């Protein structure tokens, strides 16, 4: 990229609203420098040409770089080495530039990343699942991206940070505009330990439609989107829809059928082909070879899904007798016959097997539980 092209992309990022496909198509056909020159000359032929011209007069690349220096941010543009090329999958809706604040490099962090999003009005169930799962993702080396909002977004960032992982927060306003205000400390911590990103210049406030356009960045930046709680019509489902359009994996976490905050997840699974995720391993399995080294439960692949228990080899009769034992103390043969509902011969035979297996042990005329039980 030449210096003129870089400056042109920075100016273009100041002009249109995020995700403006009309402007994106125009720049793709003419190139960033020629597009800016046409807008300056009022010869672009674009419907909003007058508005673009007015905003272009206020777009100063040198001033933008100087402002970034003051707030400890940087501008990365298309075609540079720091640019996450997966964003190009957005086509004409791809951003021209991004403002980035943080200690981690966005491109490298996003190479091994997944999005975790969900309802703002989340439940304690959803937040607990989110924090635990994101800590697991962090432990296995995955970057977690979300939007910094209340509810599931905040739980995703906090769960990742609790495991000393890298998290990416994609904002709907400028990187220096913490939104919601109550998350100012959280977003500052993300900048200290991860990455804060926006396609809006510093100082730009949030607007309702920018939340929806922001969601396409989250979807495009990551390999998969995990939805933990969502109402049927919400910004969260727009992120999932954007991910599906980009041929990214979408996974949804089921919840109580009585909870409206799980209705969106259930709809994604039933109607839109989202993958049901019941544990973090389900997500890591979908992500494929990059998760091949993830330790599973047990060493035998056949035991990954359901952990093997020491009582699994016992017959129904032995389990029935073992269940009749009290948690502590001794029990007589006659009491076991009564509590297990079996005959004396069956109880005696079961006790012999349980004794050999180390589940129970005799104590005179009585029996007690042993270590394996």
Low-confidence stretches: 292-308
Order of helices and strands: HHHHHEEHEHEHEHEHEHEHEHHEHHEE
Number of strands: 12
> Can you give the mean pLDDT?
89
Helix content: 40-55%
Strand order of the largest sheet: 1-2-6-5-4-3-7-8-9
Number of domains: 3
Overall outline: elongated
Estimated radius of gyration: 29 Å
Q: Calculate the terminal CA-CA distance, rounded to whole Å.
A: 69 Å
Instruction: Return the structural class.
Output: alpha/beta
Report the major sheet: 9 strands, mixed
CATH hierarchy: architecture of the largest domain? 3-Layer(aba) Sandwich
How many helices? Answer: 16
Distinctive features:
373 residues, alpha/beta, Rossmann fold, 3 domains, nine-stranded mixed beta sheet, three-stranded antiparallel beta sheet
């Amino acid at each position: 990229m030449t210096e003129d092209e870089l400056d042109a992309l920075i100016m273009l990022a100041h002009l249109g609203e995020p995700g403006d496909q009309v402007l994106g198509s125009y720049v793709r056909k003419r190139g960033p420098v020629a597009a800016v020159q046409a807008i300056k000359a009022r010869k672009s032929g674009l419907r909003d040409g007058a508005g673009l011209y007015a905003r272009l007069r206020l777009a100063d690349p040198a001033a933008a770089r100087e402002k970034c220096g003051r707030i400890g941010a940087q501008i990365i543009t298309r075609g540079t080495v720091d640019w996450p090329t997966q964003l190009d999958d957005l086509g004409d809706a791809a951003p021209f530039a991004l403002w980035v604040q943080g200690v981690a490099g966005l491109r490298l962090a996003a190479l091994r990343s997944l999005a975790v999003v969900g309802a703002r009005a989340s439940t304690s169930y959803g937040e607990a699942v989110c924090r635990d799962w994101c800590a697991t993702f962090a432990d296995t080396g995955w970057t977690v991206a979300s939007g910094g909002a209340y509810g599931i977004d905040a739980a995703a960032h906090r769960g990742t940070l609790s495991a000393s992982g890298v998290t990416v927060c994609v904002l709907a306003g400028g990187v220096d505009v913490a939104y919601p205000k109550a998350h100012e400390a959280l977003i500052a911590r993300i900048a200290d330990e991860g990455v804060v990103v926006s396609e809006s210049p510093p100082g730009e406030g949030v607007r309702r439609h920018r939340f929806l356009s922001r969601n396409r960045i989250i979807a495009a930046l990551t390999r998969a989107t995990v939805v933990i709680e969502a109402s049927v019509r919400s910004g969260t489902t727009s992120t999932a829809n954007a991910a599906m359009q980009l041929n990214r994996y979408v996974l949804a976490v089921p919840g109580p059928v009585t909870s409206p905050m799980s209705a969106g997840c259930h709809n994604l699974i039933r109607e839109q082909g989202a993958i049901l995720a019941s544990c973090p391993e389900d997500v890591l399995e979908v992500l494929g070879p990059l998760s091949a080294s993830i330790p599973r439960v047990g060493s035998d692949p056949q035991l990954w899904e359901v952990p093997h228990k020491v009582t699994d080899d016992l017959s129904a009769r032995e389990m029935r007798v073992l269940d009749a034992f009290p948690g502590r103390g001794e029990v007589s043969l006659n009491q076991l016959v009564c509590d297990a509902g079996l005959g004396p011969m069956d109880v005696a035979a079961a006790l012999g097997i349980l004794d050999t297996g180390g589940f129970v042990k005799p104590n005179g005329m009585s029996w007690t539980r042993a270590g394996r039980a």
